[in-house]
């Protein structure tokens, strides 16, 4: 049983991947996981992509044989239902979502425990980033969008673990969470491409637990606001952070994107490390 939730990430020598394809790619034109078809041992491989109103998620599960295909399917449906429920229930662009109702003062965070957790996480990240991540300093009021996607993925991943699946990857855009092992039985091989220089060799990681969060690669201008000035941030093309929890990594990436190159001076985040902070 997988019990160690500490991040385990190794910077691998790209030369070792000359004849070994990565399992996952981030930042490439083709965001889809590579297809190998190889599954080691008694495992049930499941791959599924789901789209909500705001994001597309790809789930790769290597379920234990004892769970059976029916059990693996039930676990997948539960994780997908969590992603859809968060999109419906917490999306700040939905007028009747809990976040929108909180903005209008109709409810308090304590009304719903998951909402209280989301608000607490936003407050903690505001403190951890010296205010560069600030869910309250955006037009329209409280907007947890900088970490909402990562929070949703982590909650869906928790559903998988509760069902007995401890080897999985969940991808959304340039973000991912992995645990356990890939289908070939080894660590997940992740190729992280530079957000601006397509000719640069990708950064190669081997991961058995951890997350990668990115801000700024969607191509949208002005989607991250400098919380100190209220103006759209634009110093960086993208910021990418690796660490234990995707919601936290996403928030750090958003803060770095908002702060620009100056953010690297204050970024001292223990288990979290900057992979890219690409200037324009």
Q: How many whole angstroms does the radius of gyration measure? A: 19 Å
Flag low-confidence runs: 1-7
Largest sheet entry:
10 strands, mixed
pLDDT averaged residue by residue: 86
Helix proportion range = 25-40%
Q: Based on helices, strands and strand pairing, what is the structural class? A: alpha+beta
Task: Give structural notes.
With 280 residues, the protein is an alpha+beta fold. Strands 1, 2, 3, 4, 5, 6, 7, 8, 9 and 10 form a ten-stranded mixed sheet that branches. The chain is globular, with a radius of gyration of 19 Å. The termini are far apart. It has helices at residues 68-90, 98-103, 113-128, 145-162, 246-259, 263-266; strands at residues 8-11, 24-26, 43-51, 56-64, 168-172, 175-179, 188-192, 203-215, 236-243, 273-279. Mean pLDDT is 86; it is low at 1-7. A hairpin with a 2-residue loop joins strand 5 and strand 6.
Q: What are the defining features of this structure?
A:
29% helix; ten-stranded mixed beta sheet; globular; alpha+beta; 24% strand; 6 helices; 280 residues
Summary?
By secondary structure, the chain is an alpha+beta fold.
Question: How would the blueprint of this fold be written?
Answer:
Blueprint (H helix, E strand, L loop, with lengths): L7 E4 L12 E3 L16 E9 L4 E9 L3 H23 L7 H6 L9 H16 L16 H18 L5 E5 L2 E5 L8 E5 L10 E13 L20 E8 L2 H14 L3 H4 L6 E7 L1
Parallel strand pairs: 2-7
Antiparallel strand pairs: 1-8, 3-4, 4-5, 5-6, 6-8, 7-8, 8-9, 9-10
Helix pairs in contact: 1-4, 4-5
């Amino acid at each position: 049983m997988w019990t160690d939730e500490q991040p385990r990430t190794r910077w691998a020598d790209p030369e070792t991947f000359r004849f070994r394809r990565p399992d996952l790619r981030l930042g490439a034109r083709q965001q889809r996981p590579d297809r190998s078809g190889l599954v080691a041992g008694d495992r049930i491989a499941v791959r599924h992509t789901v789209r909500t109103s705001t994001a597309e998620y790809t789930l790769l599960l290597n379920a234990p044989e004892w769970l059976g295909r029916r059990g693996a399917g039930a676990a997948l449906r539960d994780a997908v239902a969590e992603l859809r429920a968060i999109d419906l229930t917490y999306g700040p662009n939905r007028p009747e979502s809990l976040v929108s109702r909180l903005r209008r003062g109709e409810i308090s965070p304590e009304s719903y425990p998951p909402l209280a957790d989301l608000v607490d996480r936003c407050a903690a990240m505001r403190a951890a980033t010296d205010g560069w991540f600030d869910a309250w300093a955006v037009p329209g009021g409280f907007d947890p969008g900088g970490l909402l996607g990562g929070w949703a993925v982590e909650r869906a991943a928790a559903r998988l673990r509760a069902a007995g699946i401890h080897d999985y990857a969940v991808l959304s855009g340039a973000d991912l969470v992995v645990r356990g092992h890939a289908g070939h039985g080894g660590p997940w091989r992740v190729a992280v491409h530079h957000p601006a220089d397509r000719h640069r060799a990708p950064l190669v990681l081997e991961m058995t637990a951890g997350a990668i969060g990115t801000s700024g690669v969607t191509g949208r201008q002005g989607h991250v606001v400098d919380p100190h000035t209220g103006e759209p941030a634009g110093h960086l093309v993208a910021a990418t952070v690796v660490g234990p929890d995707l919601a936290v990594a996403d928030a750090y990436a958003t803060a770095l994107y908002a702060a620009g190159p100056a953010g690297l001076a204050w970024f001292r985040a223990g288990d979290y490390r900057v992979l890219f902070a690409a200037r324009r």
